[in-house]
Amino acid sequence: MYKTEDMPNGWVKPVAKPTPESLRARIAELRTELAAAEAQLREMEEGARLEALVKIRNLMRAFELTSADLGLTPTPQCRG
Hints:
The structure is a single chain. With 80 residues, this protein is mainly alpha-helical. Helix content is 54%, strand content 0%. It has one helix and no strands. It has one helix at residues 20-62. The protein is elongated and about 75 Å long.
């Protein structure tokens, strides 16, 4: 077998198996990271949505288009 740079030299320190408590703690850490990342994603999506709406509105004004020109019809109102 040929020796490569990524192969360890000599004795390799064994790694202890994770305990249920350490796994629960790690899961809790990852959930907090996930919540923060999801919040950031929602902010980015909202910003992109608003930016797209502004571009659409500006194009509609520039070409003097209405929602009817785009084939958009108002949603029917339920009467009951």
